[in-house]
Amino acid sequence: MSEALYASAAKYLKEQIPEHYHAVRLAVICGSGLGGLVNTIEQSTKIEFAYADIPGFVASTVAGHSGKLVFGFLGDQRTPTVFMVGRFHLYEGHTVQECTFPVRVLKLLGVETLVVTNACGALNPEHKVGDIMVINDHFSLAGMAGESPLRGKNLDAFGPRFLAISEAYNYRLRKLAFKAALKVGISKDDVREGVYAHVAGPCYESRTEARFLRMCGADVVGMSTVPEVVIARHCGIKVLGLSLITNPVVTARGKDAKKEVLTELGIETVVDDEVDTELMKADHEEVLETSARRADDMQSMVKCFADLLAENPVA
Ligand code: HPA
């Protein structure tokens, strides 16, 4: 991707948005089923662009991700905000540079803070379906294996060749997020903090893959977010990451067929204390269902976060 392509997308948008959106400093990437936030925006102030019409944007292909960029005023403080409703994933066949293209366009529009939301599966057995997790670190197998959005020629105008990513998720923004969650009435036990593991998908994890990710320190797993966060941090955008837990991930070993046959034939009696967790396997309907149920809370939380941020700007 050339600098000129990012610039032409930003120019296309700037030419069409009214003056008050030239001061847009906040962006929100809406994950699976979380695009409802834009319905809370006053209709008369809303401006929408289909991704397909913006230079350099590829089209989103996932059900539940409609694919548009929306400008509007968010919350009681009427913070000018740009929303990505729908995002791009590696599993759709896009390159990681295509997936993260919009983030640099947001930078060129003036965005300083990015709220990234997603749906994810829980690896940590204490995390319940419906909990909201504030991300405090990440782990990307795809990134470590070479699918980094920063691979290739560095665009120095955006950031450095070698990026320090150890403080990707801004501490003060995380504190504001917890304050917002409590303020809108989300129970302290339903809002968590932890590590997001990024996988390329589209398969949900095998049991062994899930155990591997858990052993590596991850609390949840999903197929998005990290590439966007890397690009945002590269160009100095502050990041808040919010994960909605939509399903448990099976980490237990499955039934042992050999033990069962030996027992059936009376050769040896072996107690198999592993649970058959077949019924717990992740499915996309479950992800969408949980998102729909809990999305309202997540939306209230993001709105309140925007108000708190307007009152307490984070340098
Ligand atoms: N794994 C990966 N991605 C996901 C999951 C999951 O269990 N749930 C929602 N997105």
What does this structure look like?
It is built from eight helices and nine strands. With 315 residues, it is of the alpha/beta class. It has a single domain (3-253, 284-311), classed as 3-Layer(aba) Sandwich (Rossmann fold). A five-stranded mixed beta barrel has the order 5-8-7-6-9, surrounded by four helices. It is globular. The model has no long low-confidence stretch (mean pLDDT 89). The structure holds hypoxanthine. Hypoxanthine binds at residues 119-121, 199, 204-205, 221-223, 246-247, 249, 282, 287. One of its GO terms (cellular component) is cytoplasm. Belongs to the PNP/MTAP phosphorylase family.
**Structural class of the secondary elements?**
alpha/beta
Shape: globular
N-C termini distance: 30 Å
Proportion of β residues?
Answer: 15-25%
As residue ranges, the low-confidence spans are none
